[in-house]
Amino acid sequence: VLDVGCGDGHFASVTFDQPLEVGIDPWAGPVCQAVSGGGYRSVILGDGGEMPFSEGSFASAVSNSVLEHIPHVETVLEETRRVLKPGAPFVFCVPNHNFLPSLSVSNAFDKVGLHPLGDAYRQFFNRISRHQHCDPPEVWQRRLEEAGFRLERWWHYFPPRALQVVEWGHYFG
Q1: What single string gives the DSSP state of each residue in 99-161?
Q2: Taking the CB of residue 19, how many other CB atoms lie within 10 A of it?
Q3: What's the CA gap between 162 and 143, in Å, rounded?
Q4: At what angle do helices 160-172 and 104-111 cross, to 10 degrees?
Q5: Contact 58/21 with Cβ under 8 angstroms?
Q6: What letter would DSSP give residue 69?
Q7: What is the chain's pLDDT, residue by residue, as a tens digit (173 residues)?
Q8: What span, in angstroms and rounded, lies between the C-alpha atoms of 29 and 115?
Q9: Which 8-state DSSP code applies to residue 24?
């Protein structure tokens, strides 16, 4: 299993019963944490758009809340497809077009008629979240198909209530 955008490795260390084969991430600080976290057999400091693996190296790949942050996401999808064996699954999660409209603070501004403040908050929150892509499923499906994948199943990233917990967690975390 390849973890595309492994970050500090926390997700893999608590989600999987045994270490994943490889985690890759472009940020040195989190990669150093992932090395000592026990979630991977190997951790690579590198860009998901230029992976140092031969074609068909992995039987599966995961990516947890990463692809939405990558400006060159199409290149990363193509490269992920290249390093996977034919027919191998790629399981990932990303926020979609419901993310910004579901933010509680902007919705509170909207309810009292302060729509410009609501819009400003949505822009602010998207910026601090470092999102490049909060796109609808149809856009993700097109990207996946262009990269050589087939979308088999999708569901919404967070119910609105769970998203509000994440939103407020940014402030209290």
Answers
A1: TGGG-HHHHHHHHTT-HHHHHHHHHHHHHHTT-S----HHHHHHHHHHHT--------S--HH
A2: 17
A3: 27
A4: 110
A5: yes
A6: G
A7: 999 999 999 999 999 999 999 999 999 999 999 999 999 999 999 999 999 999 999 999 999 999 999 999 999 999 999 999 999 999 999 999 999 999 999 999 999 999 999 999 999 999 999 999 999 999 999 999 999 999 999 998 778 888 888 899 888 87
A8: 39
A9: E
* Token representation of residue 128: 């601090």
| Opening angle at CA 121, ends 26 and 5, nearest 5 | 15
Cβ proximity of 30 and 50 under 8 Å: no
* Residue 73 contacts residue 12 (beta carbons within 8 Å): no
Structure-token match 């994943």, residue found: 20
Q: Which residue has the tokens 């009292």?
A: 112
Report how far residue 44's alpha carbon sits from residue 42's, in angstroms, rounded to the nearest whole number: 7
Sign of CA dihedral 102, 105, 107, 110: negative
Contact 77, 149 (CB under 8 A): yes
